[in-house]
Amino acid sequence: MAEALSYALSYAIVSKGLCPEVEAEGRKWQFMGIQSRNRLEWCMTHVAGMHQNITTVPLYETIGLKQMKFVIKQTKLTTVSLSVDNLFNFLKMKKEDTEGEMASIKNLVLFEKNKVTPD
């Protein structure tokens, strides 16, 4: 079942245009960020990326904000899949991004459907 969902997710990512091509190092890349603790949805997102030749970029909390912003800017990430427990900090980081390092982020894909609060 997880395999079928990964295929479906991979086609949804492509049909929505969530991972546009980026030119780097003489070739074209597609990147998708993932920020979450290890869990089934993390793996499914990674496998979905593999189905479509999309490179997943893990955004570990332990790398620090400066390094995370560097990775986002370097890869020109437009989409990040994340768990709801990382949502508030990610949005805060984007809101406080005065140097525009996170300007490329346009889409957030949440793992949990019904756990977002108005706060």
Distance between the termini: 34 Å
Overall CATH class: Alpha Beta
Coarse shape: globular
Structural Rg: 14 Å
Report the sheet-strand fraction.
Answer: 15-25%
What CATH calls the topology is Rossmann fold
Helix content: 40-55%
Helix-strand category: alpha/beta
Q: How many domains would you count in the coordinates?
A: 1
Total helix count? 4
CATH architecture: 3-Layer(aba) Sandwich
Q: pLDDT below 50 for ≥5 consecutive residues: which ranges?
A: none
Question: What's the number of extended β-strand segments?
Answer: 5
Could you give a short account of the major beta sheet? 5 strands, mixed
Average pLDDT confidence is: 92
Element-by-element helix/strand order: HEEHEHEHE
Structure description:
Strands 1, 2, 3, 4 and 5 form a 5-stranded mixed beta sheet that branches. Helix content is 41%, strand content 21%. It is an alpha/beta fold and 119 residues long. It has a single domain, classed as Rossmann fold (3-Layer(aba) Sandwich). Helix 2 (40-51) links the parallel strand 2 (27-35) and strand 3. Helix 1 (2-15) packs across helix 2. The radius of gyration is 14 Å and the shape is globular. The longest helix is centred in the first third of the chain and has 14 residues, at 2-15. It is built from 4 helices and 5 strands.
Task: Compile the SSE list and pairings.
Blueprint: H1 2-15, E1 21-24, E2 27-35, H2 40-51, E3 55-58, H3 65-75, E4 79-82, H4 84-95, E5 107-110
Parallel strand pairs: 2-3, 2-4, 4-5
Antiparallel strand pairs: 1-2
Helix pairs in contact: 1-2
